[in-house]
Amino acid sequence: RRKWGRVIDVLKELEEGCDTPVGRLKQVVDAVAVEMHAGLASEGGSKLRMLLTFVDNLPSGREKGTFYALDLGGTYFRVLRVQLGGQRSSILSHDVERQPIPEHLMTGRTKDLFDFIASVFKQFVEREESGSGYPLDRRRDLGFTFSFPVKQTSVSSGILMKWTKGFAIEDMVGKEVVACLQEAFTRNGLDVRVAALVNDTVGTLALGHYHDADTVAAVIIGTGTNACYVERTDAIIKCQGLLTTSGGMVVNMEWGNFWSSHLPRTSYDVDLDADSPNPNDQGFEKMISGMYLGEIVRRVILRMTLESDIFGPVSSKTPLMAAMHEDDSPDLTEVERILRDILEVRDVPLKVRKLAVNVCDVVTRRAARLAAAGIVGILKKIGRDGSGGIVSGRSRPDTRMRRTVVAIEGGLYTNYGMFREYLNEAVVEILGEEVAQHVILRETEDGSGIGAALLAASNSSRN
Ligand code: ADP
Description:
Elements: H1 2-17, H2 22-41, E1 51-52, E2 64-72, E3 76-85, E4 91-100, H3 103-106, H4 110-132, E5 140-146, E6 150-154, E7 157-160, H5 177-187, E8 192-198, H6 200-211, E9 215-221, E10 225-232, E11 248-252, H7 267-275, H8 285-288, H9 290-307, H10 318-325, H11 333-342, H12 350-381, E12 404-409, H13 411-415, H14 417-431, H15 433-436, E13 439-443, H16 447-458
Parallel strand pairs: 2-5, 5-8, 9-12, 12-13
Antiparallel strand pairs: 1-11, 2-3, 3-4, 6-7, 9-10, 10-11
Bound molecules: adenosine-5'-diphosphate (ADP).
Keywords: ATP-binding, Glycolysis, Kinase, Membrane, Mitochondrion, Mitochondrion outer membrane, Nucleotide-binding, Signal, Transferase
Pathway: Carbohydrate metabolism; hexose metabolism; Carbohydrate degradation; glycolysis; D-glyceraldehyde 3-phosphate and glycerone phosphate from D-glucose: step 1/4
GO molecular function, one term: D-glucose binding
């Protein structure tokens, strides 16, 4: 009886530590907008890097022809071909091929990694050639999705700043990314023009904009989390004299590294960060994304175990967490199965199973609501939060709210229904129903790859 009381205390403390009342979310919204300003004002001015992408024209829907994309940035590497019909939303077809990256290539030499990429691409076009009569040596236009921090020098060139996500190829840091790829294509006898170098959020924004021209931002919530949006060039103070035909440019926020004292942080977050390979880095991401949520739950359950013996020794993963959380059977049979089969905890009474669901709920609710605050922070920065800011592109104050679309993608948002509901709900709560009517969160699919092919199209001389 006393043990149960101690466990309930752990849950209560967690709930209080993770509390995100709308007032606090609004403080986070303000902090995001302020940090965005600071990151745009000077290099290193904020934990938000606010990287220039040199993408100034998003796909219009008029693009025509066959374009390719390579998507590198996680465990899988993908090749795509997209056929565009020239009318909005008419992606005639697209083919995708997915390959795991051999682990030794992630920590080996630049040349080996890029030769592997070029050879997978070559096999892809060789197969296509037999079907369509496309000669192998014909010039192809390609967009390269390279989801690591890059200092761009143009829409199709940039220097790798550092590796993340388990990649560590030392001789590549500081090098021109596209030059490495281009050399590998040449060694493999392929004539490919890399017309765009982008990260996954920019690809998602491009696909979102292709389908709906009111799309102004894109958010990824998968293993990690990040966002990008369209900024006015005159607001990018750290790059004076930046001129684009559209007057705007896509900015890659690298928002996973956002930090503010208003974020509700618990001892589990502090410990998780200290035990991570990158302490004091990616603080926002560690409270939100799939790589960490299951780990926070594991730490809470472990703490409960230390206070009592209601669970055995356990480990957890985010998809299992989602399955437990969404178990709607009256006696929580799925929670029982997961605890038994995977965590090897047997005969857990119903009230303890309910407790596990509670922990998942608290951790996911906080994550989703913070992501929502991040999104509204972007809207606030660009005057689309209904607070009567400046209407994009014009200097006339206007309280009329324009239709505003945010593209969202990533395994956590797509597959975790409770996360999605909490996020959508919090956006409405922060903005108020009136304004929220004009804000649409739109899920895209394969945007990181398809979007890069679209950007290759809009930046190619053929369109
Ligand atoms: P990535 O971000 O690595 O490019 P995804 O966008 O597909 O790839 O996201 C994969 C992540 O999504 C996984 O690491 C996992 O944390 C999360 N995820 C996948 N499926 C589920 C699920 N059913 N419930 C909760 N999270 C999930």
